[in-house]
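Tutorial, part two.
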Amino acid sequence: MHAAASKRSQRWSQQNALHALRRPPSHGAPSGGTALSVLARGAGKRAHEGSRTPLEVLADFASTGDTADLDLWRESALALHGARQLTWSRGLRERYAGEPEKTDGEIVAGEPHEAEEEVALIRPDAWQVLLRANADVTWQLLDAAETGGVEAVEALIELTLAARRRRAA
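Running the prediction step on this input gives:
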């Protein structure tokens, strides 16, 4: 039994050396916590020697402004759009999830829908002014609409525009 665990540990190390994963401890879970910590580390993985992940390409564009990097990132985003990003290993879903996987449509169809309520209508030109005044205004407006309704949205718009006027003066 000990020999089998040692062989698994050796295979783990060999297979994952390129992905910067560490050797599993003797109980078989990857170091740094559990197997989940390795699964969740997807965005932090590094590309093979001489290559870059899409996020590394985007970061390079942000730091250098090289439009070739932006073109490459857009190409990868288009190629990956709609592709399955996270999949279950054979038998893992059956072992731990219990119920069969649902499509996005099945999930949405099964959720109760609240009646939509129009809280505010903001003209496109006013929207651009708000965005320039406060980059976080989108989520702040949604939060204000959910918690305080029309009055809270109007108050936030007034505060945002007043702050913009003060900065301009």
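Residues 124-168 form one domain. In part three we will examine how such features are distributed along the chain.
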